[in-house]
Amino acid sequence: MKFGLVRLKNGLLIIILASLLSGCTHDSKPVQFYMLTADTGGVSNTSHPVTNQGPLIGLGPIRIPEYLSRPQMVVATSDNQYQLSEDHRWAERLDQNISLALIKVLPSQLGTDRVIRYPWPQRQVVDYQVGIDILEFNVNANGQSRLIAQWFVKSKEKTILDKRSIYQFPASTSDYTVMVKSQSQCLTQLGKEISENLMQLIASQSGN
Q1: How many Cβ atoms from other residues are within 10 Å of residue 132's Cβ?
Q2: Average pLDDT over residues 150-163
Q3: Using CA atoms, how far apart are residues 137 and 68, in angstroms rounded to an integer?
Q4: Do 89 and 166 fall within a single domain?
C-alpha cells in the first residue's frame, strides 16, 4: 500500500513538473541576435580603389566598458540606470563585433587591404596602430544612440594623434532593429573619421 502511494505521489510530481516546463517553454520568447555593421550611411561616397600596397595598419586593441561587456543589449532608462534585454542579444562579443565591422570597411576607405586586427603576431611590425577606447555606446532614455570614443594613432610606438569623437543618431527605446541600425551609423562615422585622419597622417609623413 505504501509502495503504491509513493508511486502515485511520484507520478503526480512528474506530471506537475512537466506542466510547469511546458508552460515556461510556451511563454518564453525566442532570443533575437544582432550584429553591428560599419557601412550604413553611404561610405561608398568616400571609398577608394583597394590595393595591396602601402603601410601596414593595425586595428586595435578595442576596449569597451564593463557594463557593455555582456551579451545582453543595453538601454539607458536614466542617467544612472540601465536596462538589459534577455530577449535581444549581440551575436558575438561587442568589442569583437566593433573590430570586425571596422576591419571590413576600413580597406575601402583607406584604399589598401593592408589592415590587420589586434592581436597580430608578436614578430609582425605595423607601420600605424589605431587603438580605440569606447567610453559610451548605447541608446539613452531619449531614444538617441550615442557613441563616445577616445582613439589614438601610433607610429613606431609613438602616439602621433589622440582624439575624442562623439556621435549621436535618432534611435528607439523599444525597436531593437532600429537601435542596431542607429548604432551602426555611429560606428560608420567613427570609421570614416579614423580613415580620413589616418590618410592625412600617412600623406604628411610620406612627404617628409
Answers
A1: 23
A2: 96
A3: 8
A4: yes
